[in-house]
C-alpha cells in the first residue's frame, strides 16, 4: 500500500480532518504511479477509482489482471472539499481505466482527465451510467443497492475491451461479484420487513438511498441535510426541528456521518446520547482495512437492524 500527499481541503470540519491527508491507496499488490512498462509486460491494466469503494469493485472484477489505486480512501477527510495534488494527477494520467462518481462529488477527476486525455483510456462516470441529471441532490450513489451491480458490469465490459484475452476471467469475476451481493439484498429486505416505517434522524444524506430501499423514514429536514453536506449553516428553524426529533423521541435511531463532523453535528450526537437514541455511524469512504464494498454495506445494514431491534449503538465500524 502506498500513499501520495495531496493538498489540504479548503474547509476543516473536525480536528482530525484539519490535519489529515487524503491517500492514494493501492488495492491488492503495490501499484505504480502510471501505466508503466512493467505493468504492460505483466499483462495488467492500470486502473484508478476516484473513491475506494469503486476501486474495490475494480479490484474484485479485474483480480490479478489489474493494478488498482484509490484516490480518496482516508475516512478522516471531507470528500466534498478534496483537492487533487500533482501526484494524484500523475496517477490518473497513467490510468487505462478510471471510475468516478460524478454528480459534482469528484469534479477534480474530470479536470485531470480533460488536461490529460488518454487516447485509449476508459472513463466510467457512474452518474452517466445511471442516467442521472446534474441536479441529482444526493451524490452518494454507492449507497443505492442497484448502483454497484451496474458499475461492476460496466467495469467488466471495459476491462474486456482493454484486455480481450481475459474476457472469460472478468465475466467469471462479475458473476461471483453479483452472487456476493445476494446476502446484502436479503439483509435489506429483512430490514424492511422488520423495521420498515421506522424513523431516523441524520446529519447528511450519506445513507439516504439505503434507508429508502429499506423503507426507513428520514425525518430530518432535507434543507438541514443539504446545508450540513455543503458546509453551510442550517437555518435556526431547521436546527430546532432537528433537535426536536431527539428531545421529542420522534426517531428510533440517529444515522451519523462519522467522516465529516462539526460542532453542530457533535451537539446532536450528545443530544442523541442524552435521550437514549442509538447512534449508527455511516461513512462516505469505505473503511479499511478489513472491508470490501459488500462487507461494508452489510455492516451498515446490521448496525441499523441492531439499533432498531435492541437499541444498540454502532457509532463506528
Automatic annotation (TrEMBL):
Cellular compartment(s): Cell envelope
**Entry GO MF terms:** metal ion binding
Sorted keywords for this record are:
Metal-binding, Signal, Transport
| InterPro entries the UniProt entry points to | Bact_metal-bind_prot9, ZnuA-like
> Which segments cross the bilayer?
none
Q: Where is the signal peptide?
A: 1-35
Keyword match Signal: yes
- Gene Ontology cellular component? cell envelope
Its BP terms in the Gene Ontology are:
metal ion transport
Superkingdom classification of source: Bacteria
Carries keyword Hydrolase?
A: no
Q: What is this protein called?
A: Zinc ABC transporter substrate-binding protein
What organism is recorded for this protein?
Answer: Actinospica durhamensis
Amino acid at each position: 500500500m502506498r500513499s501520495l500527499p495531496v493538498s489540504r481541503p479548503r474547509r476543516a470540519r473536525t480536528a482530525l480532518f484539519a490535519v489529515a491527508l487524503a491517500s492514494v491507496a493501492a488495492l491488492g499488490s503495490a501499484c505504480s504511479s502510471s501505466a508503466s512498462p512493467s505493468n504492460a509486460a505483466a499483462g495488467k491494466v492500470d486502473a484508478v477509482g476516484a473513491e475506494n469503494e469503486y476501486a474495490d469493485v475494480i479490484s474484485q472484477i479485474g483480480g490479478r489482471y489489474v493494478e488498482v489505486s484509490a484516490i480518496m480512501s482516508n475516512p478522516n477527510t471531507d470528500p466534498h472539499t478534496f483537492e487533487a495534488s500533482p501526484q494524484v494527477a500523475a496517477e490518473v494520467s497513467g490510468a487505462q481505466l478510471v471510475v468516478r462518481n460524478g454528480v459534482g462529488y469528484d469534479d477534480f477527476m474530470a479536470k485531470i482527465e480533460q488536461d490529460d486525455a488518454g487516447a485509449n483510456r476508459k472513463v466510467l462516470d457512474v452518474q452517466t451510467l445511471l442516467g442521472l441529471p446534474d441536479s441529482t441532490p444526493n451524490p452518494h450513489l454507492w449507497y443505492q443497492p442497484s448502483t454497484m451491480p451496474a458499475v461492476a458490469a460496466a467495469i467488466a465490459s471495459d476491462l474486456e475491451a482493454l484486455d480481450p484475452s481475459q474476457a472469460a476471467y472478468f465475466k467469471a469475476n462479475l458473476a461471483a461479484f453479483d452472487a456476493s451481493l445476494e446476502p446484502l439484498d436479503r439483509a435489506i429486505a429483512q430490514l424492511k420487513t422488520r423495521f420498515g416505517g421506522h424513523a431516523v434522524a441524520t446529519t447528511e444524506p450519506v445513507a439516504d438511498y439505503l434507508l429508502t430501499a429499506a423503507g426507513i423514514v428520514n425525518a430530518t429536514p432535507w434543507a438541514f441535510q443539504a446545508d450540513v453536506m455543503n458546509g453551510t449553516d442550517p437555518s435556526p428553524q431547521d436546527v430546532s426541528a432537528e433537535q426536536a426529533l431527539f428531545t421529542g423521541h420522534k426517531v428510533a435511531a440517529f444515522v451519523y456521518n462519522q467522516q465529516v463532523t462539526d460542532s453542530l453535528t457533535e451537539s446532536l450526537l450528545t443530544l442523541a446520547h442524552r435521550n437514549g437514541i442509538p447512534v449508527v455511524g455511516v461513512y462516505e469512504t469505505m473503511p479499511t482495512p478489513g472491508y470490501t464494498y459488500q462487507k461494508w454495506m452489510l455492516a451498515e445494514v446490521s448496525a441499523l437492524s441492531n439499533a432498531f431491534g435492541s437499541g444498540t449503538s454502532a457509532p463506528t465500524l
